[in-house]
């Protein structure tokens, strides 16, 4: 995947990761999006789509921190209700 290996194409790599997720290629999406986040941990779309892909493969606990926090908040609200 040339697009995923070129740091200048980070946005394109994220778009490809999203496409992989939308076509049920979750493991590939996780791999690609994880690499994108490793290149730029501040890239909001990369972090968001990585969290979504990780949730799809049952690994939400590995998601970027804000997504884990949202999950914990939701779990807490369910227990409180």
Keywords for this structure?
single chain; 81 residues; mainly alpha; 5 helices; 74% helix; 0% strand; globular
Sheet-strand content, in percent, reads under 5%
Largest beta-sheet details:
none
| Mean pLDDT rating | 80
Report the oligomer: single chain
Overall strand count: 0
Question: Given the structure, what is the number of helices?
Answer: 5
Estimate percent helicity.
over 70%
Separation, N- and C-terminal Cα atoms: 47 Å
Low-confidence stretches: 69-73
Give helix and strand order, one letter per element, not per position: HHHHH
General form: globular
Structural class of the secondary structure composition? mainly alpha
How are the secondary structure elements laid out?
Blueprint: H1 2-5, H2 10-22, H3 26-39, H4 44-56, H5 65-80
Helix pairs in contact: 2-3, 2-4, 3-4
Structure characterization notes:
This protein is an all-alpha fold. It is 74% helix and 0% strand. The radius of gyration is 13 Å and the shape is globular. It starts with a helix and ends with a helix.
Task: Summarize it.
The chain is mainly α. The chain is built from five helices and no strands.
